[in-house]
Design goal:
Number of strands: 6
Radius of gyration: 20 Å
Shape: globular
Structural class: mainly alpha
Strand content: 5-15%
Strand order of the largest sheet: 1-2
Order of helices and strands: HHEHHEHHEHEEEHH
Helix content: 55-70%
Distance between the termini: 43 Å
C-alpha cells in the first residue's frame, strides 16, 4: 500500500511539473495575445459606442447574473469575476454605463434562440444592433449560433457584429482557459489574456 501511495504521489508531482513546463513553453507564443485582445475589444466597444451614437441610442451590455452552465448542470462554476465586478469593468474600461444583469432562470433556459432575439433582446430591451463572440451560442439547448444570429438580424433589419477568434500559438483566448489559469494561481498570465488586472471581489 505504501508503495502504491508513493507511486501515486510521484505521478501527481510529475503531472503538475509537466503542466507547469507546458504553460512556461506557451508563455512566449501567447505573450502578445492579451494586448491583441485588448485592442480588438477596445476597437469593438468603440464601434459599438459609435454605432449607438449614430443611431441615437444607448450602448448597453447584456449579461447573465450567473453562468448558464451552473444552472443547467447544478454544479458550481468558478467565476472569473463577480456580476458586480463585471458591471464595474464594463463601465470603467469601455465607458458603457448601461449593463443589463439579467437572471438566468427557467424562462431564459427554455426560450428558443430566435424568440430570445425577437422577443427578449428586441421586444423587451429594444436592441437595434447586436454584438457577439465568434463562439457564442444561446437559446434553448444552445441552438443559436453566430451565423443564425447574423441571419436573424438581417431579417429584422438589425445591425450585427461578430467578434473574430483571437488565437496565438494555437491557443484561443477564452473564458474557459482564463478560468483555468485563475484556478491554478497563474494570475499574471491570466491578466495577459484578460487585457486588464484580474478582479474578483465578494
Amino acid at each position: 500500500n505504501s508503495m502504491n501511495q508513493l507511486q501515486a504521489q510521484q505521478e501527481v508531482r510529475v503531472s503538475r511539473e509537466d503542466e507547469a513546463r507546458r504553460l512556461k513553453l506557451e508563455e512566449e507564443t501567447s505573450a502578445d495575445m492579451a494586448l491583441l485582445r485588448a485592442i480588438l475589444d477596445a476597437e469593438h466597444r468603440a464601434r459599438e459606442v459609435e454605432e449607438a451614437a449614430r443611431r441615437g441610442v444607448t450602448p448597453a451590455v447584456f449579461t447573465f447574473d450567473r453562468p448558464p452552465k451552473e444552472v443547467l448542470t447544478g454544479t458550481p462554476c468558478p467565476l472569473i469575476n463577480s456580476p458586480e465586478d463585471r458591471k464595474d469593468l464594463v463601465q470603467r474600461l469601455f465607458g458603457i454605463r448601461e449593463v443589463l444583469m439579467v437572471p438566468f432562470d427557467h424562462e431564459m433556459m427554455t426560450t428558443p434562440w430566435d424568440d430570445f432575439v425577437t422577443n427578449i433582446l428586441v421586444g423587451r430591451y429594444h436592441a437595434v444592433h447586436l454584438v457577439a463572440g465568434h463562439d457564442h451560442h444561446f437559446g434553448h439547448k444552445n441552438q443559436g449560433s453566430p451565423e443564425l444570429l447574423m441571419e436573424k438580424c438581417r431579417e429584422l433589419g438589425l445591425g450585427c457584429d461578430i467578434i473574430p477568434k483571437v488565437e496565438v500559438g494555437g491557443i484561443t483566448v477564452s473564458s474557459t482557459y482564463i478560468r483555468r489559469l485563475v484556478e491554478m494561481g497563474q494570475i499574471e498570465r491570466a491578466n495577459r489574456f484578460l487585457g486588464h488586472p484580474h478582479v474578483l471581489t465578494g
